[in-house]
Amino acid sequence: MAFIHSFQVGDFLDSLVSLFAAFVLGTLIGAERQYRQRGGGLRTHVLVAVGAATFVDIGMHLNGNAGATQIIAYVVSGVGFLGAGVIMKEGSNVWGLNTAATLWCSAAVGACAGADLAFEAVALTCFVLAGNTLLRPLVNAINRRPLDQASTEAIYEVRVTTSADDLDDAREVLRSALEDADYPVRDIEVIEREQGGTELIATLLGTTADPQELDAIVTLLENHALVQSAGWSLRTTD
After folding, report:
1. Which of 157, 176, 161 is nearest to 230 (CA)?
2. How many whole angstroms separate alpha carbon 99 and alpha carbon 156?
3. CA-to-CA distance for 127 and 112, rounded, in angstroms?
4. pLDDT digits (tens, 9 = 90+) for 159-181
5. 179 half-sphere exposure, CB direction, 13 A CA radius
6. Could you tell me the pTM of the whole model?
7. DSSP E strand boundaries for 96-197
């Protein structure tokens, strides 16, 4: 019954306050995520915050500030693995990064509460909530802004569809049309299409291009006898 002899009312109340603070602050962060129907909801954020607070509080009681510092280092890396579980990737689209970052911040809130840094925990909670709510209109405004194709660092691709028999000649036609317009080619990829035909994808070497000039090049290619269809596309490097 060693725990009876080691039990201290003051230490227990201190731990109780730390865990309660982590619970309340984790609830505030998690409620916002739950309201927006994100992957990591209310309970997940509460558990992360309370768990981090518990580990740090244990370190504080066993080895003081040095023990808390060691535990915090493990909490930071451990929550990183948990956050990776809510990130999903499909092709070039990635979801869950914001939820993973919020989980990471919930752990930081819990760590502050466990280390008896109550005011820091409250301040961090306010900043996390502000980042997920107050910045949302700014994000929406930026996303609605038309893409400036002339200044955005991007990858431009010109696509041509031809027959397998005319592949080599069509490749030279594509390369010549781009280089004559002063658009050097980085690479030309060949893709066999399931519905028939072969697609050539020329990636331009530069990061900027004039859309009107690319439209003119595509029109020129479409009028060539070896080309079945042509087009161009833009994707950002972010």
Report:
1. 161
2. 31
3. 14
4. 999 888 888 888 999 999 998 88
5. 10
6. 0.57
7. 154-162, 185-192
| Assigned token pair, 120 | 């820091």
pLDDT tens digits along 116-126: 888 999 999 99
Determine the 3-state secondary structure of 92 from DSSP.
Answer: coil
Question: Which three-class secondary structure state does DSSP give residue 4?
Answer: helix
Which DSSP string do the residues of 205-232 spell out, in sequence order?
Answer: SSS---HHHHHHHHHHHHTSTT-SEEEE
Domains of the chain listed by start with CATH number: 6-144 (no CATH), 154-236 (3.30.70.260)
CA Rg, the chain, in Å?
28
Are the beta carbons of 203 and 187 closer than 8 angstroms? yes
Burial class (CB in 10 A: 0-12, 13-18, 19+), 67: middle
Angle between helices 9-35 and 118-133 (to 10 degrees): 0
CA distance 153 to 203: 14
Residues 218, 225: Cα–Cα separation, whole Å: 13
Half-sphere exposure of 13 (CA within 13 A, CB side): 3
Give helix 42-84 / helix 97-114 axis angle, nearest 10°: 110
In the chain, how long is the greatest CA-to-CA distance?
92
